[in-house]
Specification:
By secondary structure, this protein is α/β, with parallel strands linked by helices. Helix content is 36%, strand content 18%. It has three helices and four strands. It has a four-stranded parallel sheet with strand order 1-2-3-4. The radius of gyration is 15 Å and the shape is globular.
C-alpha cells in the first residue's frame, strides 16, 4: 500500500543552498509536504516556494515550557499561518529535568 502523504523534516534551513538541497531531496522522494523548524530564517518566504512545488508546509518546534516562550512561538505561528502555512507540529521534548523545554515540570 502506497503512502497517502510523505513529509521530509529539516532543522536548519537558513541558507539558499540548504533550501535548494532540501527541496531537491523532497522532490526526489516524492514528498507531499515538508516540515520546517520555526527557527529556520527562510521559512516565511519559503512557504510559497514549496507550495509552488505542490507540497504542503508544516512548521514544527519544541517550544519553551514557559508562558513567555509559548506566547512567542504562538505569535510566530500565527504570522506564518497568515503567510500560508498549512499546519504546525508541537514536538515537546526535554534536554534535562528542569530545562526551559522540560514539559514534565509541574510549575
Amino acid at each position: 500500500m502506497a503512502l497517502a502523504s510523505k513529509y521530509l523534516w529539516i532543522v536548519n534551513m537558513n541558507t539558499d543552498a540548504a533550501e535548494t538541497a532540501f527541496s531537491k531531496h523532497a522532490l526526489a522522494m516524492g514528498a507531499t509536504g515538508v516540515c520546517v523548524r520555526t527557527s529556520s530564517t527562510r521559512l516565511p518566504d519559503a512557504i510559497n516556494r514549496f507550495h509552488d512545488l505542490g507540497m504542503k508546509v508544516f512548521a514544527w518546534r519544541w517550544p519553551p515550557a514557559n508562558q513567555a516562550g509559548c506566547d512567542r512561538e504562538a505569535d510566530l505561528v500565527v504570522r506564518l499561518i497568515r503567510r500560508g502555512l498549512d499546519g504546525y507540529i508541537v514536538d515537546p521534548e526535554s534536554d534535562r529535568a528542569g530545562a526551559s523545554n522540560d514539559w514534565n515540570r509541574t510549575v
